[in-house]
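Translate sequence into structure tokens.
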Amino acid sequence: MVQAEVPPWAVRWLSQPRLAPYVRAAGAADALDLYRWNCRLGLALFELIGWFEIAWRNAVDDAISSRRRQTRHWLFDTTFPLQRATRERIARAVSTTAGAGRAEPAPGRVIAELPLGFWRFPTLRGYTTTMWAPYLSHAFPHAPRRPRRDEVDNRLQPIILLRNRIAHHEPVFGQPPLVRRTIADILELGAWINPQASRWWDRHSSAASVLAERS
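Result follows.
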């Protein structure tokens, strides 16, 4: 139950269930301050994850496209070894981005339409031989060694989960070590793909400094 010290307008705005974690963590008097800081942290993380998302999906596409001899883009090639669920998500993105009178949109438009969660598919166990070995194992030219599928997936999954929590306005303040580790994983995976970009992210992202304010 949200305590009486929380202003009634704030309860009406956010609802008791959404305020409750902040009240438990900071007390009723400071719950809104913690909520505001959580929003600042979420925004900073969302920016950093967005930078990573663009690099990641482009790396996936480049790794696949550069190693295929077929002229048709892999997103539209029905002979390309994609599982049904993956193919269905692509089909929905194609349908959304196709303009009037165009049977096939530009691949870049479809790539941008597909969410970060989709781009985890090459690191899943079911794609080890059809996707990881022939394509994605080559997507990290600056890694100190060729990374394993499972170690990349173990880093990618928390990034996606954190992004989804932020997108749904959920609290992220309660696990500073996890958030700190996720920031480090973003920068390291990014450096394996494009070290100059990762260094730029590190210089310009405020995620680590916002996190340090309360942890």
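Note: Residues 31-65 form the longest helix (35 residues).
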